[in-house]
Specification:
Strand order of the largest sheet: 1-2-3-4
Largest sheet: 4 strands, antiparallel
Number of domains: 1
Radius of gyration: 32 Å
Shape: extended
Order of helices and strands: HEEHHEEHHH
Distance between the termini: 78 Å
């Protein structure tokens, strides 16, 4: 019953993350494509439409179309299938399971873009002044959060366990132990009672 409930919750997380990414990308296409960039929170957040033919932060965008097809569509599909197999084959902690699901959700949603239009729809840019990120989307955030959760779980498991704290040995306890060990009980026998009489 617990495994079934956990599986249902992870499926809901997968569907919710991918669904959120699909909805925001649809809004970006309908409201941001061809429109001027929008700025919020003193230019900390920018909304700007961009179709990225490469990987995260436009990595590989200048490669040949055939190379991008092999690496970012077929290669990505194989990698996600392997990640899904590992997620279902082995037992993971709650944090690692959530991380894998977030990673799969983001990867599958970006893969859907590549299969549909040959590129990924990005629209978010954050930063302060000249220090800014590249343009990304909700799926990229899910992928990075998933990787962070899995790495945190790996580091946490490899960290040595803290030694158990020993109770303090106070002077009163030491005195009690000395008195206890020095005490020798006397057993009174019938002959000893007769001698006293």
């Amino acid at each position: 019953m617990i495994n079934l409930r956990r599986g249902v919750l992870l499926c809901l997380l997968l569907a919710g993350t991918a669904g959120c990414d699909r909805v925001t990308k649809h809004l970006a296409v309908t409201t941001l494509a061809g429109a001027p960039d929008q700025s919020f929170l003193a230019d900390t957040v920018r909304l700007q439409y961009h179709e990225n033919p490469g990987a995260f932060l436009s990595f590989g965008a200048t490669w040949a179309p055939t190379t991008r097809l092999v690496m970012f569509q077929f290669g990505n599909a194989i990698f996600l299938a392997l990640a899904g197999f590992l997620a279902s084959r082995y037992r993971w902690s709650r944090a690692a399971s959530c991380g894998l699901v977030l990673f799969l959700a983001g990867g599958l949603s970006n893969l859907a873009d590549r299969l549909a239009i040959g590129s990924v729809i990005d629209f978010l840019n954050v930063g302060i002044g000249p220090i800014r990120t590249g343009i990304f989307n909700v799926a990229d955030v899910a992928i990075m959060a998933g990787i962070a959760l899995v790495l945190w779980e790996v580091v946490r498991r490899k960290a040595p366990a803290a030694p158990e704290a020993r109770p303090k040995d106070t002077a009163a306890k030491r005195g009690f132990r000395r008195a206890w060990h020095s005490y020798t009980p006397t057993v009174e026998t019938p002959s000893s009672r007769t001698c006293r009489r």
